[in-house]
Amino acid sequence: MPILTISRQMGSLGDEIAQEMAHRLGWDLLDHSQLINRFFSEGVTDRERKSLSESARFFLNIAPDGQTYIDRLERGLNLLAEEKPLILLGFGSQVIFAENDDAVHVRITAPTDIRLERVKTQFNATDENASQILDQADRRHRRFVSTLFGMDCADESLYHLILNTGFLSVAEAAESITALLNIRKIMQEHPETVEKPVPSPNGKIHFKNKSEAEFARILDMHQIEWKYEPRTFPVEWDAEGNVILAFSPDFYLVQFDTYLELTTMNQRYVTEKNKKLRRVRELYPGTHIKIVYKKDFQTLVERFSHLGSTSQS
Question: Which domains does the chain have, with CATH numbers?
């Protein structure tokens, strides 16, 4: 079943967006308090429920049934997610369902000054009080996910979509989430529409020139594992941070953690590649990289082959 998780900063309109999505989709919306009532209504005392509402660390304690409260919550959530579509608001749901292919994870943010104004209006608070409320909420949100899952809820890698409501209304944010859900649904129902890498004929690599193909053949002959252009190193940027110069070494020798760039005797190309090589060494210390002339192919490969056999013995 599809799952939508929403992580939000206080004052970012995350709650309002979650409610709008529940209205649009007709899915159950569950937040922290609703989850506690659903999964800890039986076999848990009122005092324990209060602790679960107030303390992230309490979830790590052993419940009467012998498992931790967080394990009980995760198990219950996974079972519920098999029965019906869900919108899950907060409590680390983006981590709990991180490996679930049916889940879409969204983060709602807004600039601090805008969030402060919203908190002032919501609580009729002074500037100082609003700042305190916001700071405490932010710290508690991050502490909850960090304590239970060892993750930072602000980590962008946890989310499919991050929306800034300093520039978006609730309706616009909901439209964006709905569009993402619809696209993912189409891709799941029609996997043939998903773009796939175009393989080379016969599964072979397309080398840029005969020298590279020859070098790969020599490496294979000496049973040296290699990868072709596996990484690109940015080495120069413009004023806006756009990459304007990068270096993609031709080969990577896995066993020796070494990149090799093949070149001709043309001095113009050698000078340019040496410049890039120096920048890579400056910007990426510890990176092993060499420039190789065609006349040195065989000698270099035999040297690596000898090193490999020595290390194995």
Answer: 3-193 (3.40.50.300), 201-312 (3.40.960)
Please give the Cα distance from 154 to 9 (Å, whole number). Answer: 9
Could you read off the pLDDT of 74-111 as tens digits, one per residue?
Answer: 888 889 888 899 999 988 899 888 888 889 999 999 99
Q: Which long-range contacts (CB under 8 A, 24 or more apart) does 265-270 make?
A: 265/293, 265/294
Give every strand in the sheet of 251-253, ordered side by side: 226-228, 251-253, 258-263, 288-293
Q: How far apart are CA 38 and CA 84, in angstroms?
A: 15
SS (H, E, C) 15-80: HHHHHHHHHHHCCEEECHHHHHHHHCCCCCCHHHHHHHHHCCHHHHCECCCCCEHHHHHHHHHHHH
Q: What is the pTM of this model?
A: 0.64
Question: How is residue 130 written in tokens?
Answer: 């609003």
Average pLDDT over residues 9-26: 95
- Indicate the Cα dihedral angle 162, 165, 171, 175, nearest 10°: -20
